[in-house]
């Protein structure tokens, strides 16, 4: 058993953990990062990056199918499912290896294995972490420990993930063959992204969602527009329904659902059932009990500075925050707090959310419903992509941009978008949310023409009552 001593040890090398480790090393702290699987965590290996690679393949396929609309003749366009999956896995592998390069560049010790905090006794002592790997056990010592162990897919009571017919997102990315039919349980970001991907390949897709609309965390107008777009694409959905049973029949999955408010059951059959109903934190067997770490539904409870114990910190999915970029921001914040330099608190009211289905969805800030519930006076403006020259030229006119500006201060309250390039457009309004940009200063900013970004200016003009292109 060997012992190494560090200023900071990060447990988990996902988008929160690896960023925290790099920032800590940049600030002169001797740093190590322990990871039991692949550098980059779920996001880089099974989530954000490889799923976007799949969706890009679907996008290219859809473009070819509509090539005639652009004056181009293309024949016999068919998806090569194994090749699409292989491309996605290859990209994930390259990005993961890139994290290893960054660790070497910043002189971070990358330790492979499963970590467990050992108990401390008596007066203050550094933390000791036991690391178990195929090579045996070792112990590392750290003044500070950052827990960034992430989360994994969960199921519902009575619905067993068998990895064959009833699967979660990891398995859905590496199926041996394209299913002819797919039922997706859950209409959040993961659910609608996979529904969109498989439908582009020609799979018959049905979404079951307990709440009354798709992407229920988004603005209701966004949900309505997505449902209209999905219906046009042939994606079926049962909103306001709960799954009551799912059985692997060998040849497929027999599924029953019923209205959440009660009513007649609906029977479905599909090759695959994808369960996308959220995540559960990876907090088991970490040794947290001996350190008095509190849990809430399994998630680590932290204070306003991400502390969960003495020189013990936690970030990202394991504390229930979600979103890779939130975890990264928390990683930087905690590393800077540990180093004793200025640490800018994370603005949780200005975290953008992006969903990469077709059409894309992006949002930041309050919805119109929540603004009204909080008695926030707003001026609301919308600008449809159908009125945008760039969208016409690109052949992508589905959707709109909706902005909410404070009726008295002019500050951005929220922005909600659905349509082409909105996952990139969201950066402009997120900047407005975190700075002193207001409606008037945004309008005073010349937006290049023709660009998709003109929709933001157009929506703001509409909010102030002087829309030019509507």
Task: Characterise this structure.
This protein is an alpha/beta fold and 470 residues long. 31% of the residues lie in helices and 27% in strands. The protein contains 13 helices and 25 strands. Strands 1, 2, 3, 4, 5, 6, 19 and 20 form an eight-stranded mixed sheet that branches. Strands 8-15-9-10-11 form a five-stranded parallel sheet. A hairpin with a 4-residue loop joins β12 (241-248) and β13. α3 packs antiparallel against α4 (81-105). The termini are far apart. The model has no long low-confidence stretch (mean pLDDT 95).
Highlighted features:
alpha/beta, 470 residues, eight-stranded mixed β-sheet, five-stranded parallel β-sheet, 13 helices, 31% helix
Please state the average pLDDT score.
Answer: 95
Relative helix content: 25-40%
Low-confidence stretches: none
Q: Could you say which overall geometry the principal axes of the C-alpha atoms support?
A: globular
Specify the structural class: alpha/beta
Sheet of most strands: 8 strands, mixed
- DSSP strand content: 25-35%
Helix segment tally: 13
| Number of strand elements | 25
Radius of gyration: 24 Å
Distance between the termini: 71 Å
């Amino acid at each position: 058993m060997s012992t190494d001593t560090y200023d900071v040890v990060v447990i988990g090398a996902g988008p929160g953990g690896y960023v925290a480790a790099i920032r800590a090393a940049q600030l002169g702290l001797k740093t190590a990062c322990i990871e039991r699987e692949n550098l980059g965590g779920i996001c880089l290996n099974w989530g954000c990056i490889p799923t976007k690679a799949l969706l890009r393949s679907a996008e290219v396929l859809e473009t070819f199918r509509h090539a005639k609309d652009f004056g181009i003749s293309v024949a016999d366009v068919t998806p090569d499912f194994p090749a699409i999956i292989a491309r996605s896995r290859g990209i994930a592998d390259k990005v993961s290896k890139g994290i290893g390069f960054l660790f070497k560049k910043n002189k971070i010790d990358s330790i492979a294995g499963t970590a467990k905090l050992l108990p401390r006794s008596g007066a203050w002592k550094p933390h000791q972490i036991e690391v178990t790997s195929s090579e045996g056990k070792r112990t590392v010592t750290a003044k500070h420990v950052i827990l960034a162990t992430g989360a994994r897919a969960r199921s519902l009571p009575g619905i067993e993930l068998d990895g064959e017919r009833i699967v979660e997102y990891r398995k859905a990315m590496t199926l041996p063959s394209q299913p002819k039919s797919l039922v997706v349980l859950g209409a959040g970001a993961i659910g609608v992204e996979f529904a969109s991907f498989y439908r582009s390949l020609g799979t018959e897709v049905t979404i079951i969602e307990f709440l009354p609309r798709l992407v229920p965390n988004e603005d209701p107008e966004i949900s309505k527009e997505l449902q209209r777009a999905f219906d046009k694409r042939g994606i079926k959905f049962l909103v306001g329904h709960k799954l009551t049973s799912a059985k692997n029949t060998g040849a497929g999955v027999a599924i029953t659902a019923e209205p959440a408010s009660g009513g007649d059951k609906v029977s479905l059959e599909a090759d695959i059932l994808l369960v996308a109903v959220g995540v559960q934190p990876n907090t088991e067997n970490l040794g947290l009990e001996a350190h008095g770490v509190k849990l809430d539904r399994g998630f680590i409870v932290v204070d306003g500075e991400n502390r969960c114990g003495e020189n013990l910190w936690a970030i990202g999915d394991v504390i229930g925050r979600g979103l890779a970029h939130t975890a990264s921001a928390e990683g930087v914040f905690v590393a800077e707090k540990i180093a004793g330099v200025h640490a800018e608190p994370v603005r949780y009211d200005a975290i953008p959310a992006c969903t990469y289905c077709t059409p894309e969805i992006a949002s930041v800030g309050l919805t119109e419903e929540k603004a009204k519930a909080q008695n926030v006076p707003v001026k609301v403006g919308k600008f449809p992509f159908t009125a945008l020259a760039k969208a016409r030229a690109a052949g992508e006119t589905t959707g709109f941009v909706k902005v909410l500006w404070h009726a008295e201060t002019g500050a951005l309250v929220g922005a909600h978008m659905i349509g082409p390039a909105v996952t990139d457009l969201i950066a402009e309004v997120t900047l407005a949310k975190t700075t002193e940009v207001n409606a008037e200063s945004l309008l005073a900013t010349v937006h290049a023409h023709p660009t998709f970004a003109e929709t933001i200016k157009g929506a703001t003009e509409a909010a102030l009552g002087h829309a030019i292109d509507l």
